Prior knowledge:
Layout: H1 2-16, H2 19-30, E1 34-35, H3 36-40, H4 47-59, E2 63-68, E3 71-76, H5 79-108, H6 118-122
Antiparallel strand pairs: 1-3, 2-3
Amino acid sequence: MVNYQAASLDRTFAALADPTRRALLARLDDEPSVTVSELARPFPVSLPAIMKHLDVLSDAGLIVRTKTGRTVACQLSPAPMEQAMEWLSRYERYWTDQLDRLAAFLEQDQWQPSPASPSSVSSRPRRKKSTKRGRSRSK
Length: 139
């Protein structure tokens, strides 16, 4: 079961990695059931390219395709995204806890910058003396 969930998450994140596929999902979120032709219309790529993107989304379980006669319609299937959000929220809680601990530590530690010690003034590197510009004499 764990391997299945990991593979499912991998497919979900891989499908969401492409901007065209994310745009297709956003369009399906706005319109519940859209034909493949209608989905492909606003994109500057060919219909076969859109079909390949839809295959990836379908393999990840993010969309469901239904065929009525010669027309194929697509619908959004949010379950894999819910699993991905659960996975991400676990890490969000982890980083929120870590950042809260860091903030508490910084608020607790009331450090004051130490004044410059007398030894640090004398240990500064000295400036180089400037030389005249022009040709240098060689002996």
